[in-house]
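Progress note, sequence design subtask.
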C-alpha cells in the first residue's frame, strides 16, 4: 500500500516539476528529482547510485544556471535589472494568457521594464530581446532536465 502512495506522490512531483519549469515560483528540476527519489523508495524502481547522483547534479546545475542565464542574456544585449524584473512579471501575467502569453509576456515585460529604466525604444527592444532570450534559454534547460527525469521515472515504473 505504501508503495502506491509513494508512486502517486512521485507522479505528482514529476508533474509539479514540469509545471515548475514554466512557473517561476516552483523549482522544476528539484521537484522532478524528488519524484525520482520517491519512486526509488518503492518496489517499482531500482536506479543505480550513479544515475541518481548524475540526475541530482543535473537538477542542481540547471537550477543554478536558471539564475545566471537570464542575467547573461540581458547583459549581453545591454539590458538592466529592470528588464529582467519586467520579463518575470510578464511571464507571470502571460501564464494566464496561454502559450502565446508565456512567450510574449517576458518580451513585453522586459520592454516595459527597460522603458521605465531608460526612455529609449531601440535600447528597450534590444535589451528586452536579450532578456527574453536568456529567460527562454533558462526555461528550456529546466524543461529538458525535468523531461529527462520524467523519462527515467516512466522507464523505471513501466519496466
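Output:
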Amino acid at each position: 500500500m505504501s508503495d502506491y502512495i509513494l508512486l502517486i506522490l512521485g507522479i505528482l512531483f514529476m508533474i509539479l516539476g514540469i509545471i515548475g519549469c514554466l512557473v517561476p515560483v516552483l523549482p522544476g528540476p528539484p521537484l522532478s528529482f524528488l519524484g525520482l527519489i520517491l519512486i526509488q523508495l518503492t518496489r517499482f524502481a531500482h536506479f543505480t547510485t550513479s544515475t541518481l547522483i548524475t540526475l541530482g547534479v543535473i537538477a542542481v546545475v540547471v537550477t543554478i544556471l536558471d539564475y545566471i542565464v537570464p542575467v547573461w542574456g540581458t547583459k549581453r544585449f545591454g539590458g538592466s535589472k529592470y528588464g529582467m524584473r519586467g520579463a518575470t512579471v510578464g511571464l507571470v501575467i502571460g501564464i494566464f494568457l496561454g502559450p502565446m502569453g508565456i512567450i510574449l509576456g517576458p518580451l513585453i515585460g522586459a520592454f516595459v521594464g527597460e522603458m521605465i529604466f531608460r526612455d529609449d525604444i531601440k535600447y528597450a527592444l534590444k535589451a528586452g530581446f536579450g532578456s527574453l532570450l536568456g529567460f527562454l534559454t533558462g526555461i528550456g534547460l529546466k524543461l529538458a532536465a525535468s523531461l529527462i527525469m520524467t523519462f527515467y521515472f516512466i522507464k523505471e515504473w513501466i519496466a
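The chain has a mean pLDDT of 89. Work on this subtask will continue into the next period as scheduled.
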